[in-house]
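Hi W.,

Here's what went into the run:
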Amino acid sequence: MQLEGTFGLRSPRERVFAFFLDPKDLSTCIDDEHTIEVVDGDHFKGTVKSGVGFIKGTFTWSAAVVERVTPERARLRVHGSGMGSGFDIDATIEVSEAQGTATVRWRADVAISGPIASMGARLMGGTIDKKTSAFFENARKRLEGAAADLAEESVRTL
Amino acid sequence: MTVHGGIGQSMKRKEDARFIRGKGNYVDDVKLPGMLYLDIVRSPYAHARIKSINIDKALKVPGVLAVIRGKDLEAANLSWMPTLMSDRQMVLPVERVMFQGQEVAAVVAESRYAAADGVAAVEVEYEPLPVVVDPRKALEPGAPILRPDRKEQTNRIWHWEVGDKKGTDEALKDSDVVVAEDLYIPRIHVSSIETCGCVAAFDTMGKLTVWMTTQAPHVIRTVFALVAGLPEHKIRIISPDIGGGFGGKVPVYPGYVIAVVAALKTGHPVKWIEDRSENIQSDSFARDYRITAEVGATKDGKLKALRVKTIADHGYTDAAANPSKFPAGLFHIVTGSYPFEKAFVEVDAAYTNKPPGGIAYRCSFRVTEAAYTIERMVDILAHKLGMDPAELRMKNFIPPASFPYKSALGWTYDSGDYPAALRKAMDLIGYEELRKEQQEKRKRGEYMGIGISSFTEIVGAGPSQTFDILGLKMFDSCEIRIHPTGKAIARFGTKSQGQGHETTYAQILAEELGLSAEDIEIEEGDTDTAPYGLGTYASRSTPTAGAAAVMAARKIREKAQKIAAHLLEARPDDVEWKDHKFVVKGSPGKSKTMQDVAFAAYTNHPQGMEAGLEAVDYYDPPNLTFPFGSYICVVDIDKETGEVKIRRFVAVDDCGTIINPMIVEGQIHGALTMGFAASMLEEIEYDENGNIQGGSFMDYLLPTAVETPRWETAKTVTPSPHHPLGAKGVGESATVGSPAAIVNAVVDALSPLGVTHIDIPITPWKVWKILHEKGEA
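Here's what came out:
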């Protein structure tokens, strides 16, 4: 399943790019109950309690940054498993900047396998769409909030 | 003298006394001291390399005693086993998984709950591999090779063809009219009420007993002996009561073998019972045929030639249960009820990343696919020619006087009267009036359709010169013992899964032996006691084991006649079997019943004669039997919702001599409902990653009484000339015949919009889309 989206925000490009590669920042964008652990600069892992409809459980996951062109483009691969099911996400984030506005283009190939994918087949598309959109909406809000805080701090400094 | 429960009587089913009171004894009812439970870890991926299987956490789960992996079986050369089609299937994988839901490891525990917890604790690391779910793509050059273990590095399992290719090509070229259509018969699942399972136990002498859900216990025992290397006399397979089979309980599933290994490993009896989703997601499937058919005819509607090309999706292994000489089953009955001059059929079977498929879902080896194809094509031709579909059929039927009839594809049909069956169906439904009504409704913009299917079945496999499974000839058997008091027990090589054998066989024997059907106990399914047989599927029980019952009973009568003569103080030649008793010719008052003879067989038999009254017969049918029927379906379509309502459905069946009309009618009702389900509801799809879409009853739709139409049934009787009773078998006829009638009716309704075909299942969404695209909804 392929998903993609674009959003813009008034925030420095470097800040936006760094946000998406910082596990602690990313963690604040995930609504489902989860843990996150930094293995090294390019590898993270953890657990997430998620599911489709009433079919919910805990998944263990690991993520690797497989491409990093600071501050333009990054690619992450995430693999998770649990409840006899698995998920694989191949996500690309491109950040551009024009006239002080950063534009984030994201694309995610999501593959779900196992009982979650088959039992929840009719709900799967909507659920993935909802969770992915929520993730990036949370990211946008966090970044915009950080930008506003930064602006406020600049004003106070002045 | 009329015997109670003789042939033709609608006696109530003997077995129902326990079934309707919840007293059946199914595999899951078997409980043994010290019994352990087995649950299976299944693959979430449709195709992946297994990088590791970590069982440490699972072994720490309280109650878990063992975890079995492929590499554990590999040491005993048991990680693979043969299928019934001489392919190989994994018991547990060592390197790769090939479909979602495949068995990966097994956990043995003290309770089913602990086993399930153990399954959740097994950690398997996979590396996903490219997935192929479309058999057409599997056959394309460059497709990933799914079975590198085979010598043939191709996804084509086999190519099979029959008929006169050149002659058919020429006949099609010479035809005034040729119609062609692509038909997809999707993957469906038998969905028996009872899922598969077993209990495996070794006794102190090392003898293995397996209670299992199998339609063919004797074949299973032989396969077990060959696979496991156990002496066959040290294996006992018991099929207790079975909650529906429909072909899905013929194959040997990995769970059976793993349970045996688990019993051997732990020294305890081990029970394995699938849950519903495991059953739907991993057991053998049916259908999944992609068919391109062409029919050539003269401009006045005389059928000339039929050419059929098919791609068969068998999943990751060919685990169908077809007779070995017929890899595409009996699909070449596809010429149906018509005397085509030329015909040619070819089938290519392909591997995909799906569970094994190709079993007969209440249909004798691909006969539904065949009947659906020809009956759809005849309708398509009728529409092309502007002829009434009934008229086209009547014009082309094999004439009753032509039987036995040899078809263009090599079958010899035993008997039939196709015009009579269709005429009867037309009269019952009021065909001509319905056509007038349809004309009126079309003028008003209403969508009403009438569909016909005049199918020919082919059942009763089969004659030993051509029919075998794994080399085992497809005879079947009956062993009868009459006790001194005139009661009897008869054992058979078949195995009922709900068909009513305990009643039908008792009625056959009642008729042949002059005993009450109530006094005859029927036993099947225990390989230690029953004579060897090939089992129950493909509507073969009455044609084969039913015939064996007749022959064994007649052997008994032969001996009994001598005893009767002894009792009547007459010469054996002067005694005859008449009116269900032995009578001295010309002296009707001097007679002996079978009960009299039975008592004498143990107390007063002639000098020099062996005591007792028993016989066994292994019946090798001289030919298959060819039941047939004509069905007419009337549908109304709701333009706003696309819902198809079956207003009437008349089914005229001819299964030759009828043993128990009530049971036959029940069989037809059940099979019609299954045909309706396949036509309107059932389909198992896969997404591009090989995820099953429809792996539970939330998504895989079965009809309830609410959705099921009211069936109107009738019969004609054309006995089989070679069966000792003239019986042909009926269990599957309606599953075979009904889908085409339903689809023909829907297409007929929508034909004013230019619709020529809709693939099953015909869902309201499909119909609504058509209506919407045509501006009608």
